[in-house]
Amino acid sequence: MAPTRVGFLGLGIMGTPMARNLKKKGFEVTVWNRSPEKAQALAAEGIQVAATPVEVAKAVDVFCTCVADPSALTEVALGEQGLLRGARKGQLFIDFSTVSVGLVQQLAAQFAAHGVDFVDAPVTGSKGGAEKGTLVIMTGASDAALAKATPIFQAVGEKVVHCGPVGAGTQVKLAGNALIAAMLQGFSEGMLLTAKAGVDPRKFVEVVQASGFRSPYYDFKGKALLGRDFATHFSIDLMHKDLSLFLDNAAVHQVPTPCAAVMRETYNLARAAGKGGQDITAVITAYEELAGAKIA
Amino acid sequence: MAPTRVGFLGLGIMGTPMARNLKKKGFEVTVWNRSPEKAQALAAEGIQVAATPVEVAKAVDVFCTCVADPSALTEVALGEQGLLRGARKGQLFIDFSTVSVGLVQQLAAQFAAHGVDFVDAPVTGSKGGAEKGTLVIMTGASDAALAKATPIFQAVGEKVVHCGPVGAGTQVKLAGNALIAAMLQGFSEGMLLTAKAGVDPRKFVEVVQASGFRSPYYDFKGKALLGRDFATHFSIDLMHKDLSLFLDNAAVHQVPTPCAAVMRETYNLARAAGKGGQDITAVITAYEELAGAKIA
Amino acid sequence: MAPTRVGFLGLGIMGTPMARNLKKKGFEVTVWNRSPEKAQALAAEGIQVAATPVEVAKAVDVFCTCVADPSALTEVALGEQGLLRGARKGQLFIDFSTVSVGLVQQLAAQFAAHGVDFVDAPVTGSKGGAEKGTLVIMTGASDAALAKATPIFQAVGEKVVHCGPVGAGTQVKLAGNALIAAMLQGFSEGMLLTAKAGVDPRKFVEVVQASGFRSPYYDFKGKALLGRDFATHFSIDLMHKDLSLFLDNAAVHQVPTPCAAVMRETYNLARAAGKGGQDITAVITAYEELAGAKIA
Amino acid sequence: MAPTRVGFLGLGIMGTPMARNLKKKGFEVTVWNRSPEKAQALAAEGIQVAATPVEVAKAVDVFCTCVADPSALTEVALGEQGLLRGARKGQLFIDFSTVSVGLVQQLAAQFAAHGVDFVDAPVTGSKGGAEKGTLVIMTGASDAALAKATPIFQAVGEKVVHCGPVGAGTQVKLAGNALIAAMLQGFSEGMLLTAKAGVDPRKFVEVVQASGFRSPYYDFKGKALLGRDFATHFSIDLMHKDLSLFLDNAAVHQVPTPCAAVMRETYNLARAAGKGGQDITAVITAYEELAGAKIA
């Protein structure tokens, strides 16, 4: 049987290694990226490069998107050269992006009208997980669509959590990112306050990691913060977008989420300070500058 | 050599098992509690019971306190029947409570004037850690005082982190509790929003525990929340006090801590709703009541 | 010269008296409303009623909209029976709604392509100002469009502030509403705290009104709160929408607005508690219920 | 009848003109200030200068305090050279400071034990009101004590609001200052966002002042902000203290006050940025620096 032909659109920090893993696992892969250099970089690895999303859609059985935000996804899916123009009955559309619940539900409906199944499948695991193929995938899909998507998921991740119908994966993903923001903010406030109070923040990190509220995340980010390593794994701009989407969900469903609301403004402040492209660990540096103190 | 005589004042959720562990490890233990029934309960186990703090101070080599808040500690240490009235040169005062940095520094100075060393040694590990003797102890002390306290610490905890001079243990403890509040708030907001949006919150918990931001704390509290088990391990009243103390520290040292500030008002809201004595997991139930939705 | 023919779409708390004032000032008025009863109520007053927005556009020289939110305006302007379908060169489109800056800029561009000038002209003054024709109008428009709109403005308001090009009126309006939310929240928190602390909140109101920070708004809302009069002048749902739009602006322009962010969640909480249709003064009643205390 | 002998302790921005007004109205005035130069400056005006608070207490019938914070008042009233050491039956103690409710209640009790009546009488009106004698005075006192204090109040203020028993004046004052913080923050956020969005913030100020939510305060502070006049009328440090005290009250009485909580951290941020001594209008400059935009 011929290998499944898979399209991958969006070759950022996450998309590039995901496309590579699909190729490694034997899929026939066609990619597209808005800035073509990133696609060309994969051509040497036996991955085909398409000039437009519609060209990808025409060439494959399954198309996957992993782009930065709702407007980018709207353009790729519904634009003049978008996937919908090349869609045909029996295809599968997997969106790995983190966008709004409303948008994935709208895409599901529009592609269903062309006989295309849709799965929202945002991922967590950051750059490292994308490279190792150990992502956790939150899916919103019918059982049938999920079954079709499973071989793809096995190629890029190690765990799939089926959260419910289309949109449910995005709901869980946004809540997860709001959780990360809270975890990191509490951690950063503690580090900066202990440091400015004259206590070695390494002691704070040591206590966290010895306690019941330890987390691999605190191990990872504790080292990064203490070493002032702000290399971007997940950018302030993207987290700001996700907090905004989470808060929009909270508004739709009328659930007060004061912690997320305050986080959003904290990220807004970091963006105002020109740090939007930096890793979320760099949020605290905006306070450092104000407070005249450093965590390390 | 005669066993060290240790006094223990404050027999709450934490203090009672800590006093028992000291007895088990061979110390000669004398206890006192404001409401005497809790002390009497230990008499059958070979633990001596004193009628006043001053009586404890006179009878022991080391006295330990583990009380609810700054005013309780002030009364036990400095009141008319307080420890200071019975203090003598060469003794050691270990405070396991979580109070203000200012108060532990003041006590250290006042007891030093009587030749008594002081260690602030707040603990984390909750009820279970106190029972099993696996607490993590954050200490603020001179090296000499710490050395004297070590056998006591080994009897009640499994890890000691020496954070710096007197007050440093309290700084780290307060930052740790503010971190817990942020972790739990992010988790609770996510659970309530996914639930009200029609997504099974068990899926959210499953994703958290499969991801890099998993934590034993989320395993523990996830089960509690999904099972609606609000049995008190750490009360809303106590967390509210600790967030207030953390924010006071932040004010003293001029570090903006917006996340902790919002948490404090969230705990204030839960207290206003009559939930002060319940576990911190019950904070979300105040929102549940408002939002007409439940996490489980 | 024949009177200018003016269309008015959206007959809510504000729109109905504004349409009446246009009629009174001699304009020939045609109205439309989504639920037709409100339009029929005006028929007896010599106001014409149209069945669709497009019908209004065809019948008039100037069309005015005053609807609840961005989606309602989009439908009225761009829907299948929308104004654009009836638009013709030389007309003027005045939007009195409060919607997003992005939407008014988009409408301006789309109607300009048909030769129609556009003015965003959100108003303040609440129900009473609409009835008396004393609204304050914040406009975003070219000088030429503003000149054409001026006779209309004089019929419904008493002051026009030209804030800049299209979108500028909306910017200022959203900032004004965020300001109102802050003013009212500070007032409400103070009243509830003094009341629960056992101090007559009328004393608080008296002090406010005797001080340099007095305001006609505090006079108006102080009486309403003390009299527990929550009749809707401006609903919690609408303020929640405006705070959301203000925060979206803040995100676009990267300005941290922590006060507005917290207000939005406070309004979210009030909506969750089922108070969305009530006046913004009723926000405090959600806290009253939690806190077991009343402002009056 | 000999003029009443009045002591005045604390000669800051408010205290100096208040003492002068007492002298002008015919009282025999004795002053004390921690840094003696400020007291000496008044000697040429026929005002007597005492070396210590106790000396003031011995020389007068009524003593008034107007100091910066709870610790300063505690020292002046209860310190080794404090007022209590010179207090005698029949005297009156008027505190014009803004401190905690707990402290004024404690002072009332301690001075009552010496036969001295106590009135808490915080004022509003800022520097200008103190100079003109047009302060608004919020009093907490028994009717008898209030009657004795009235001639003093008439010399320094133009309106007295009797809020209730001792502590009630302070409750209302703290709520009033939290209100001012909310008013100013909403105003500042709106100005900075409109400015950064390219809209002239003078238009925003013009709209505010034309609307029902206008206030003399916005007139005053609007001119200051547009003119970048940050001369200190009321310092960031003092507002931060008052917000902290208000939040402590809110904690005691269990009333959620999320707006005040966020304001406190905003002031904390401004203090961290080294602006503590500047006027509260300068809070926004911390955001300006971050946001790379100016209100004017």
What does the model show?
4 copies of one chain form a homotetramer. The first copy, chain A, is α/β, with parallel strands linked by helices and 296 residues long. The termini of chain A are far apart. In chain A, strand 8 (135-140), helix 7 and strand 9 form a beta-alpha-beta unit. In chain A, helix 1 packs parallel to helix 6 (126-132) and helix 11 (236-253) runs antiparallel to helix 12 (258-272). Chain A folds into 2 domains: 5-164, 3-Layer(aba) Sandwich (Rossmann fold); 171-291, N-(1-d-carboxylethyl)-l-norvaline Dehydrogenase, domain 2. The mean pLDDT of chain A is 96. Helix content of chain A is 54%, strand content 14%. Chains A and B meet through strand 9, helix 8, helix 9, helix 10 and helix 11 of A and strand 9, helix 8, helix 9, helix 10 and helix 11 of B.
CATH H level, superfamily name of the largest domain in chain A: NAD(P)-binding Rossmann-like Domain
Number of helices of chain A: 13
Helix content of chain A: 40-55%
CATH secondary-structure class of the largest domain in chain A: Alpha Beta
Oligomeric organization of the protein chains: homotetramer
Helical/strand content category of chain A: alpha/beta
Radius of gyration of chain A: 20 Å
Rounded to the nearest angstrom, the distance between the terminal CA atoms of chain A is: 57 Å
Topology:
The structure is a homotetramer of 296-residue chains.
Chain A: E1 5-9, H1 15-24, E2 28-32, H2 36-43, E3 48-49, H3 53-59, E4 62-65, H4 70-78, E5 92-95, H5 101-112, E6 117-120, E7 123-124, H6 126-132, E8 135-140, H7 143-156, E9 157-164, H8 168-196, H9 201-210, H10 216-226, H11 236-253, H12 258-272, H13 283-291
Parallel strand pairs in A: 1-2, 1-4, 2-3, 4-5, 5-6, 8-9
Antiparallel strand pairs in A: 7-8
Helix pairs in contact in A: 1-6, 8-9, 8-10, 8-11, 8-13, 9-10, 11-12, 12-13
